Fold:
Amino acid sequence: MIPTITAFERSPDRGRGLARDMRVRWALEEVGQPYNVRLLSFSAMKEPAHRALQPFGQIPTYEEGDLVLFESGAIVFHIAERHAGLLPDDPNARARAIAWMFAALNTVEPPIVERGAAALLERDQPWYGERLPLLEDRVRGRLDELSDRLGGADWLDDAFSAGDLLMVTVLRRLDGSRMLEEHPNLCAYVARGEARPAYKRAFDAQLAVFTGNPPPG
Ligand code: GTB
Structure:
């Protein structure tokens, strides 16, 4: 059964792979699962037909036979559970990889999203200049801690896992902020993720939505 995911018809990032369908595409590419993509306009995302799949009117969603999923983390977890390659077989290593999935989404992503939302939506507010350093300090705190834990390792817990996949996509949202560059090991970590062939295929596929040039094959 070929799953279908949803993605932006016109991504505000102009195909830089920052929208959350990227993590789902990457997971599917890592496990070698072909997939279809249904592109949605912003208005279609808010229609009842899409809200029946995604209660908050967002992308991505995942449809596979009778199964409909939303939340990118839940979708990546489902893919990792059903296919080899994204979670270790050893039960303890598997549990630790899942902990890193939650850490990416619950501990590291929120301050990054908060900062991004402020930069996008609050820039004209008189208090923006005072608020931004506070938001950036929160991001820096998390990056310091993550950098300390990663140290000189390639991945967060031995082999590459769905935890790394999510963490790399979360850190990529700092693109252009110069905050990641304060931690060379985190920059190298993100670059290692981006160098994976599955990542490149996923990136090219979502960029093609923006350029209108689908990758060959
Ligand atoms: N928790 C949900 C999940 O993980 O699936 C969050 C899903 C979500 O935020 N989806 C966004 C969306 O549909 C797209 S990814 N937004 C439209 C809406 O809420 O009305 C967030 C995103 C959007 C754009 C960029 N960008 O252009 O850089 C980056 C990230």
In short: The two ends are 20 Å apart (CA to CA). The CA atoms of residues 42 and 182 lie 35 Å apart. The first strand starts at residue 4 and ends at 8.
